Predict the 3D structure of the following.
Amino acid sequence: MGFERYPPYSTPLILLCIGLCSLASRISRMVQLLSALWGFLMHTASRLSVLALLFAAGSANAQYDWINPISSTWNSGLWDAPAPPAPQFPNSDTANATISGAGMPYTVSVSNGNWAVNNVTKLSSDATLQLNRTLQVYGSVINQGPIAIVAPVGGGANLRFRGTGARTISGTGTITLAASASNDQSASIDRSAFDTASVTFGVGQTITGNGRISVPFINEGLISAAGGTIYINTADDTAFNNAAIEATGGGTISLADVTLDCQNLGSITIDNSTLEFNGQTFMQRIKNATITTPNGGLVRAIQGNCEFEDVILNGNADGDTRVGYRFFGSAFENNGTLTLTGDGANAFSALRTGSTPYSFTGTGEMVLAN
């Protein structure tokens, strides 16, 4: 019995089969490795997606709520807020603040430094938001109770609007300006330099006290100088009064570098008080308005370009020495007495018209004296 010999061509076939089996094994292992790598990549992508969502959620405006009627400072840890962030309010223009705690009077004070916020919503009439420094608002304000802007001696306190576009102070609350001296402008509602924000004072909102408004505004509420002085100075931007501006109890509305346009909608009442033109660099003009001065109230030109445009005066006005009035639009209706007293040496105490033809109407008189 002898050994069978494979045909001479069988050896290469055997070697080829062995090689193919080895290659198949390597391909299988490579597929396994690729599958594992794919699973890792998908897991990583899922984690990155979650992180992106968390980042997006973190970059949205965070909400902070003052829900307990406890007096403290703005930067205290009494805010009810998500964790993170911590309950201490961030100095951020992306954070919203709501003060809603009720049941007893309390005060939330901005006194330790200046703070930034997006929107402020003060829902509780039990709460007083007191600004002893600057609160910078990048959004709007809802005020259902008192806000007190109280300047410290030698310092300033401001409700300051930042950014561009229209802002609002809505609600039925009262903002009281409390400057550190009776003739000071250290308590203010203003805007940051180079910003172009404007503010609407909504229906039901009252601005009163002693201080300054230096942001262009649309008044749908009440601006009242009740025994104090409210300076309105918008650096020559126009402010609109569609409701009521008044001075009572010996108070003063002082206009400087502003055009105050009542759009034949708003009223200006100066009751036993003063409305003064007191600018230095630009003009101050009242237009499309009816001014009433009962009980000895007075419109007074002190300095600068003092201008009326299509105004009705139901009361009295005068000018300091060497200060006069200029008239624009088409007519001035005078139902009181307008008196100018010159110094006998020049013509600064004058009545001038800035447009022609021009009409002076009404039942009053104009008195020019030396």
